């Protein structure tokens, strides 16, 4: 069943899908990659954002992307709060945040799931917009607009965050805090404040990512569970805290998944991506674009 | 030591609490588990509401055998691992009089041997071929599946009549869809069709564009899809975006989800042209005694309960389960399980979804599954599905309300 | 035992260690005879800690060999080397935080000392207490390792190392960050240990301590040996003065 | 020391005796159905803690071990009609092998990387089983229990007793490890792997041993589930719930002592069983979430830690 067109198609769709994966993972790349917070509730926050977008779209007819932008400040505050709670419970007390941190965020994720169910019910939800359900003809190929939107947003997010982290004072401080907290303290900056800010940004980004999630496919309250593996896979494969690395790793994952899906049989697709992750972890534990040399 | 007493203590509390209330009123208790959380929760909640409407109706009529009817319902979290303990609780602690099965196959499968061993009647709830290996002679499925292959053959028949010679199978890698795909494969071989594409996709698949490109490249005449709610939407979107090819005459078959109100509302015009299985539709031939009244009540209560506002797929069959039990108890005059089973097996039962007769294996003697084509659907409007003509019944002949429009691309317009 | 042969206790020959493109140790060879008090100096990043990581087995080396008591230990895992008699402390103390001081030492007695002589639980408890007494930590035996002061931590690390019954003790900047009276305290401890059939390699930045302690001093710079000899000889060496003292 | 051994084994014998007596005396089946699930979680939590608690390597793949236990039993039963003890023993062997592979992972990965690798491995294994038609594939497989062996007159009662024996085995092993040289070594490597190695602790060997023992017990705990459910499907057998619940139980009980996971599994397992038949709605999940957060925040050392703290305070008060 192999043909060149199919392969080309798989690659194009895979790149677009990869960009979508990058968009939903890039917040985690900050919170887990740079700040070392084992944020397994990241996908739950993401789904929550999707429901926020759904709410605005359904009741006020707001465009999903705009809705995503609108809830961003709210999520920023939410992130500040969540980090404060995490800091007070774990980092302040010092040792062994690992397991308990994971358990803590699992608890948070479950609570979010239930709150969504209580508010919106268990049925799946989706949004309407002009670009949902349409496609773009390119020769013989047809590319769904949804994925083009995901592509544009993901690339924009990556560029913005990369610039932010390298060009602004706060951004550089965030990267510094990831590498050497003591040095930063000596410089007179408060690492906790900076980390909190960074976590806020990581959560704020989820507003947009949540909009993409519900644009690309319908959501339901327990959808977060499928995304735990996928988002961590992307971030770890990328190497912790590299924004452009996240994009590249996500694209690799997307392309690999789509090629397997299209040409070899869909049922093995998840195994392939996670086998790749295991391979990367075994050979290059610091990830493909890791910050540690 | 401490461990054991703690354990024993909790059981004692659980038993006590429920036993004492039971003695006071002595209603007829119908026990079941139903998914309130997890992947099956959407269906489970709608189905339960159907049964609850029946309970209220029968109690308004004075109950059964002069006793009130009470439901004892627990959440099985859509999982197979919860139901054995729940049904043991229902049998041994709550001492329920009648058992209903949970919604869907997975939670039901582990119960079958237990129920058979206890000699209890079990009213099934939309599971698929769950009794074929166990062979419990007191099992009755409320779902209109009928013989295992009737489902696929009705769809493929339509395809063959429309001139289809080759078929593509796309199925979710989960139990129900895989069972459907298996029968479709067998029927296709029997009909002499060529299977040009046969794939299972994992439940976590987000994006279907890639799979559909591959499917399109195989150039099938008929596309048989067996999918679950989240994927059904994804597949239809991708079909709309990628296209499926002009040679496809018939598309659909076994897509779960296209019966649920919110899913249908979300998909809107993307549904047009799809021929899919269904259980109940608001077409003229589908109304029986009590059907209209049922949906009036259901529609009101669905809003408060935040469940499927249409509820065509499962809820009337939940109600029908109740009706069948009601008729059996009235006819037999007791709660004797064997006598009830005998009555259910040997008679035809009048229900709001039409007359039901059971075959020896506890499935419907004749399939009541309809194949219907979506027509003239607009976006974001749930009320349109309540009017006839939106889902035109093509099969079976006695319920038919229109003819198939082919090819698929033409029917989509 | 060791006196019968002329071979040194520890022989390092042609040791090289690279990290990616960076050469941390470049063809280092040195012999350390039994009973010597050996000082290791050099500026930051000169390869001192890398060298002792290679001796204790935390890093694998290629090429080069490490010979200890006439046995090639280049390929042995760290815990095996510990059992052969190489013990170390860490530049930044690494206590077992969930344990008391006594339990920290018991780990060493349980695992490292077991090969030498099988002793009963009571014997081990006695050994542990006698080591703690000698280190001046007896009163802290049942205190959590997280509650110790800086100097107590340093002492506990040395005590834990001693509990493994070492022939060679490597002390990696055990005096960093201590007050001058505390430095003297720890130095006295190390001197007293050196008397008893134990060879000591001391890495230190505090010059007076190195001068007072060492029989012989080696200076590393950029992974190479630039001087080796008596403390006075090394201090007089011009390259050492340039590289290390920055004059 | 010796006296506590006598207490322990007397307690274990009494526990087994009582379990056996229950099966002979109580006619009501529900205690066995629900009790089986709780006992199963005790084994899982205790087994998990050997690696996750003592050694500090957080295995997120409990579901992979559990599921493989289920499917080892399914395969042996379908292919050879193997009896229950053989199913369990074979599952333990499979689990030991998987544990060994897991142990090799610890060579290269620590902390959260190890946890993520175990998630990845779980998904790969689940996918493989899903694609294996012989054991039912995605569609699942129904099994018919063979006749029950005396002195039991009911299969579930027998499974209950078998699981009770696994509990005693798991607890005895965990207790032995905690009190032996292995326990101290694992604790040391949990605190600081390099320092442990340089203090003479053979860290790799200890980690491998912990992985193998933990894996064998996790898998063995899953094996009887095939006969308990008389049905197996990959989505249920490899459910994330097993991983999360096991982790939650260990943390709620406390991982510093063998009794911690036992207490945690009883508390959380019983709560879950009770909630299933009382509140029985999404609130169920909410309770798990709130319990997790509360315990992690308010009692970071679990119930065991709380008890110790209270005891220490009382001692200080007296002294």
Entry summary:
The complex is a heterotetramer of chains A (293), B (413), C (247) and D (319). Chain A contains 11 helices and 2 strands.
Can you tell me about this structure?
The complex is a heterotetramer of chains A (293), B (413), C (247) and D (319). Helix content of chain A is 75%, strand content 3%. With 293 residues, chain A is an all-alpha fold. Chain A has a two-stranded antiparallel ribbon. In chain A, a hairpin with a 2-residue loop joins strand 1 (135-138) and strand 2. The model of chain A has no long low-confidence stretch (mean pLDDT 86). Chain B has two domains: 11-146 and 289-357, Rossmann fold, CATH 3.40.50.2300; 150-285 and 368-412, Response regulator (Rossmann fold, 3-Layer(aba) Sandwich), CATH 3.40.50.2300. Chain B has helices spanning 2-25, 41-60, 83-93, 105-108, 111-117, 150-161, 175-190, 209-217, 229-242, 261-267, 291-305, 315-332, 337-346, 408-411, and strands spanning 28-34, 69-75, 98-100, 122-124, 139-141, 166-172, 194-201, 222-227, 250-255, 275-278, 370-374, 391-395. In chain B, strand 1 (28-34), helix 2 (41-60) and strand 2 form a beta-alpha-beta unit. Chain D is an all-alpha fold and 319 residues long. Chain D has one domain. Helices cover 79% and strands 1% of the residues of chain D. Chains in contact: A-B, A-D, B-D, C-D.
Considering the chains and any ligands shown, give keywords for the structure:
heterotetramer; A: 293 residues; mainly alpha; two-stranded antiparallel sheet; 11 helices; 75% helix; 3% strand; globular; B: 413 residues; alpha/beta; Rossmann fold; 2 domains; 7-stranded mixed sheet; 5-stranded parallel sheet; 12 strands; 15% strand; disordered N terminus
């Amino acid at each position: 069943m192999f043909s060149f067109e199919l392969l080309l198609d798989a690659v194009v769709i895979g790149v677009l899908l990869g960009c979508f994966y990058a968009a939903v993972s890039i917040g985690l790349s900050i919170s887990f990659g740079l700040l070392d917070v084992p944020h397994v509730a990241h996908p739950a926050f993401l789904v929550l954002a999707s429901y926020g977008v759904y709410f605005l779209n359904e009741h006020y007819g707001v465009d999903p992307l705009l809705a995503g932008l609108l809830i961003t400040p709210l999520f920023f505050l939410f992130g500040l709060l969540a980090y404060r709670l995490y800091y007070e419970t774990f980092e302040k007390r010092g040792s062994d945040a690992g397991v308990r941190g994971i358990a803590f965020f699992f608890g948070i994720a479950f609570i979010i799931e239930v709150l969504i169910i209580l508010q919106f019910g268990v049925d799946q939800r989706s949004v309407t917009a002009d670009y949902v359900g349409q496609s773009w003809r390119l020769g013989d190929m047809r590319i769904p607009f949804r994925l083009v939107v995901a592509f544009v947003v993901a690339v924009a997010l990556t560029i913005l965050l990369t610039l932010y982290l390298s060009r602004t004072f706060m951004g550089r401080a965030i990267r510094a805090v990831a590498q050497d907290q003591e040095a930063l303290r000596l410089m007179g900056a408060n690492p906790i404040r900076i980390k909190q800010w960074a976590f806020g940004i990581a959560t704020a980004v989820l507003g947009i990512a949540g909009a993409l999630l519900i644009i690309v496919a319908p959501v339901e309250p327990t959808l977060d569970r499928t995304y735990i593996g996928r988002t961590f896979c992307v971030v770890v494969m990328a190497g912790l805290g590299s924004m452009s690395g996240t994009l590249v790793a996500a694209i690799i994952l997307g392309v690999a998944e789509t090629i397997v899906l299209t040409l070899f049989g869909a049922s093995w697709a998840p195994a392939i991506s996670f086998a790749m992750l295991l391979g990367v972890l075994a050979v290059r534990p610091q990830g493909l674009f890791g910050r540690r040399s | 030591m401490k461990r054991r007493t703690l354990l024993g203590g909790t059981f004692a509390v659980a038993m006590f609490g429920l036993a004492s209330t039971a003695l006071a009123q002595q209603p007829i208790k119908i026990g079941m588990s139903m998914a309130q959380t997890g992947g099956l929760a959407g269906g489970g909640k709608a189905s339960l509401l159907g049964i609850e409407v029946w309970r209220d109706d029968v109690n308004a009529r004075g109950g059964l055998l002069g006793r009130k009817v009470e439901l004892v319902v627990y959440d099985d979290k859509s999982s197979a691992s919860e139901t054995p303990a729940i049904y043991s609780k229902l049998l041994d602690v709550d001492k329920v009089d009648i058992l209903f099965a949970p919604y869907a196959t997975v939670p039901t499968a582990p119960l079958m041997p237990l129920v058979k061993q206890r000699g209890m009647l079990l009213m099934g709830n939309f599971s698929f071929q769950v009794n074929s290996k166990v062979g419990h002679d007191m099992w009755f499925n409320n779902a209109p599946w009928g013989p295992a292959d009737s489902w696929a053959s009705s769809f493929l028949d339509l395809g063959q009549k429309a001139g289809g010679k080759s078929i593509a199978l796309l199925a979710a890698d989960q139990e129900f869809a895989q069972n459907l795909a298996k029968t479709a494969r067998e029927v296709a071989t029997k009909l002499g069709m060529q299977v040009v594409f046969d794939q299972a996709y994992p439940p976590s698949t987000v994006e279907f564009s890639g799979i559909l490109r591959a499917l399109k490249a195989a150039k099938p005449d008929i596309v048989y899809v067996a999918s679950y709610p989240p994927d059904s939407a994804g597949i239809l979107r991708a079909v709309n975006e990628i296209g499926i090819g002009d040679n496809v005459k018939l598309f659909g078959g076994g897509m779960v989800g296209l019966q649920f109100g919110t899913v249908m509302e979300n998909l809107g015009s993307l549904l047009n042209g799809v021929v899919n299985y269904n259980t109940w539709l608001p077409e003229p031939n589908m109304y029986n005694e009590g059907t209209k009244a049922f949906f009036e009540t259901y529609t009101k209560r669905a809003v408060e309960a935040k469940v499927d506002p249409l509820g065509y797929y499962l809820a009337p069959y939940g109600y029908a389960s109740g009706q069948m039990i009601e008729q059996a108890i009235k006819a037999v005059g007791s709660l004797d399980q064997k006598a009830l089973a005998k009555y259910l097996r040997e008679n035809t039962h009048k229900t709001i979804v039409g007359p039901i007769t059971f075959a020896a294996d506890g499935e419907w003697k004749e399939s009541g599954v309809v194949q219907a084509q979506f027509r003239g659907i607009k976006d974001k409007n749930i009320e349109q599905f309540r009017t006839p003509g939106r889902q035109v019944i093509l099969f079976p002949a006695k319920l038919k309300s229109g003819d198939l429009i082919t090819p698929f691309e033409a029917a989509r317009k | 035992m060791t006196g019968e042969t002329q071979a040194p206790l520890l022989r390092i020959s042609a040791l090289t260690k690279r990290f990616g493109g960076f050469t941390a140790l470049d063809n280092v060879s040195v012999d350390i005879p039994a009973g010597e008090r050996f000082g290791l100096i050099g500026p930051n990043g000169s390869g001192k800690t890398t060298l002792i990581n290679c001796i204790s087995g935390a890093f694998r080396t290629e090429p080069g060999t490490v010979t200890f008591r006439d046995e090639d230990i280049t390929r042995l895992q760290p815990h095996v080397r510990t059992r052969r008699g190489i013990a170390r402390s860490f530049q930044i103390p690494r206590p077992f935080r969930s344990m008391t001081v006594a339990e920290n030492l018991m780990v060493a007695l349980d695992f490292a000392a077991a090969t030498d002589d099988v002793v009963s639980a009571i014997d081990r408890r006695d050994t542990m207490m006698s080591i703690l007494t000698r280190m001046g930590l007896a009163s802290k035996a049942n205190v959590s390792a997280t509650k110790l002061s800086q100097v107590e931590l340093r002492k506990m690390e040395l005590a834990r190392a001693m509990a493994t019954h070492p022939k060679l003790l490597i002390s990696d900047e055990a005096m960093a960050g201590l007050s001058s009276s505390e430095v003297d305290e720890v130095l006295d401890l190390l001197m007293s240990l050196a008397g008893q059939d134990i060879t000591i390699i001391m890495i230190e930045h505090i010059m007076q301590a190195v001068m007072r302690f060492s029989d012989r001093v080696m200076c590393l710079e950029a992974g190479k040996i630039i001087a080796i000899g008596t403390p006075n000889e090394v201090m007089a060496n011009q390259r050492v003065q340039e590289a290390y003292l920055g004059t | 020391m010796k006296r506590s051994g006598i207490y322990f084994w007397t307690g274990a014998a009494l526990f087994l005796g009582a379990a056996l007596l229950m099966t002979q005396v109580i006619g009501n089946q529900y205690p066995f159905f629900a009790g089986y699930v709780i006992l199963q979680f005790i084994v899982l939590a205790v087994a998990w803690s050997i690696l996750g608690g003592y050694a500090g390597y957080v295995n997120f793949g409990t579901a992979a071990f559990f599921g493989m236990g289920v499917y080892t039993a399914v395969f042996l039963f379908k292919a050879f009609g193997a009896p229950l003890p053989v199913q369990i023993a074979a599952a333990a062997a499979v689990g030991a092998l998987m544990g060994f592979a897991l142990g090799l992972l610890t060579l290269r990965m620590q902390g959260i990387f190890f946890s993520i690798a175990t998630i990845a491995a779980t998904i790969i294994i689940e996918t493989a089983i899903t694609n294996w038609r012989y054991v039912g594939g995605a569609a699942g497989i129904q099994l018919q229990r063979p006749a029950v062996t005396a002195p039991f007159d009911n299969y579930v009662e027998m499974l209950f007793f078998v699981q009770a024996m696994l509990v005693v085995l798991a607890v005895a092993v965990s207790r032995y490890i905690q009190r032996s040289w292995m326990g101290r070594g694992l604790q040391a490597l949990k605190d600081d792997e390099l320092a442990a190695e340089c203090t003479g602790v053979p860290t790799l060997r200890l980690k491998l041993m912990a992985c193998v023992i933990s894996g064998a017990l996790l898998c063995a705990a899953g094996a009887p589930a095939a006969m308990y459910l008389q049905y197996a499907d990959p989505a249920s057998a490899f459910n994330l719930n097993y991983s999360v619940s096991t982790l939650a139980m260990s943390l709620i009980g406390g991982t510093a002592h063998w009794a911690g996971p036992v207490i945690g599994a009883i508390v959380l397992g019983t709560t879950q069983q009770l909630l299933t038949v009382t509140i029985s709605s999404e609130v169920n999940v909410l309770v798990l979430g709130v319990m997790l957060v509360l315990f992690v925040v308010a009692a970071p050392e679990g119930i065991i830690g709380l008890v110790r703290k209270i005891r220490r305070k009382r001692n200080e008060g007296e002294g």
